Amino acid sequence: MPTELYPSRRALMIGAAQAAAALALSPPSLAAEALPKMTVTRDPNCGCCSNWIAHVKAAGFPVEVVEVPDVMPLKTRLGVPDALASCHTAEIDGYVVEGHVPAEAIKRLLVERLRVKGIAVAPVGSPGMEIPGQAPQIYEVVLFASGEQRLFARYRGLQRI
Question: Which domains are assigned to the chain?
Fold first, then answer.
């Protein structure tokens, strides 16, 4: 009895239906979807913001830049703690991103969907704030919510440690 090397039309239809069902039932993946748009509000006189914006764009984030002479009213409205305030503030998918947060940490926050207002980083050694000729410094990425701050990740340059 000869073996059929090509699947029948019925087998192809069943396989296609199974593949479509698997795709429809699988949870959405941030990697498989387009990243949400990030709106970055910054002072037009700050030069380091451009380096960080280039960093997040290179990581795949679509970015809209809004330049204002005073970013502080936005920070206050969004609940950014004074101690974490930086030169620019980004908004993405319901979160606040304050300062030079690595794109990897932003993606992780979007996947984990933590119940916080946002994420922030002290600028020294973070993306866009590197010092040429010096080894990357260790810095912390901090989550913040109403009256609360806690460590999210520790980095050296772009490498999470």
Answer: 34-160 (3.40.30)
What pLDDT score does 38 carry?
A: 97
Q: What is residue 18's predicted lDDT score, i.e. its pLDDT?
A: 44
Contact 104, 158 (CB under 8 A): yes
Rounded to the nearest 10°, the torsion over CA 80, 83, 85, 86 is: -150
Distance of CA 86 to the CA centre of its chain: 17
- CB-based burial, 48-73: b 16+ in 10 Å, e otherwise: bbeebbebbeeeebebeeeeeeebee
Specify the DSSP element, H or E, that contains 63.
strand 63-67
Q: Which of 34-38, 112-116, 152-156 has the lowest mean pLDDT?
A: 152-156
Query: What is the mean predicted confidence (pLDDT) over 130-146?
Result: 79
117 pLDDT band (50/70/90 cuts)?
very high
* d(C-alpha 69, C-alpha 117), whole Å: 24
